[in-house]
Specification:
The chain is α/β, with parallel strands linked by helices. The chain has a domain of about 160 residues: Rossmann fold, CATH 3.40.50. About 25% of the residues lie in helices and about 20% in strands. The chain contains six helices and ten strands, in the order βαβαββαβαβββαβαβ. The strands form two sheets. The protein has a seven-stranded parallel beta sheet, with helices on both faces. It is globular and about 45 Å long. The two termini are about 25 Å apart. It binds 6-phosphogluconic acid. The site of 6-phosphogluconic acid has 16 residues, from β4.
Length: about 270
Amino acid sequence: MEDTVTRGRGKEGGCGVYVLPSPTELARAVAGRLWEIARERGDAGPVHIALPGGETPRKVYETLAAEPYRGRFPWGSVHFWQTDERFVPASHPRSNRRMIAEALLSRAPVPRGNFHGIDTSLPGPLEAARAYEANLRRAIPKAPGGVPRLDAVVLGIGADGHTASLFPGSPALAESRALALPAEGGDPPMSRVTMTLPLLNAALRGIFVVQGEGKANALRNVVAAFRDPSLRTPALPATLVTPRRGTVLVLADAEAASLLPAEWRGPG
Ligand code: 6PG
């Protein structure tokens, strides 16, 4: 059940790229990797994982909430966070929290205190970002330097190279201290709250999950920058994600990976 495809470890600072034939097998590979990460710490303490919104991860969460993972995943020792949220009510069709609740929280035995969402019932995105940052700082063990260290951040990539709600040219990309900020962007443009690069890059692991032909061009440009750091640019925010353990893991379906040269695939 553990997906051998993701067991490879790229070199520090590298980029492991694994291409799965279909969205279903992509979802299984991501669920398998999350299961591995969830178990790594054993009884040594909780594991903190940040989950993205959008549509791609829906199948991942449904897969994780179903057998064989449902009965084996250590739900009690894993805390789930949001990488970002649209500033809409949690019941809104475009709410990431609503998607996570539908696909994961309503299907799997996640303890109530183990999901930490961005609270869009607060007066505005700034209040929500500040409250979220306080929760992050309170709940997650700190890395040297005092930034909370997530065990893993799962991220999507937009066709414009955005990740979380860090969009090309966003002022939030220049943030060096805050862990969460208000943001704007998306299609249609919406007010949002996002984790910032200081938090994302303090994480032990970054896992990009990319699906569909519409992402092929962006993924090629992002992986090119993971392989050659001189290409990292605020014009492609996903390229600025450099997690602590260095190796970014990219899990993509065949359509999203269709422009990746064969030699870019594998442990990196
Ligand atoms: C959001 C997401 C965003 C997402 C990408 C890819 O709130 O929109 O967090 O960063 O990961 O836009 O979205 P899809 O998976 O829907 O293509």
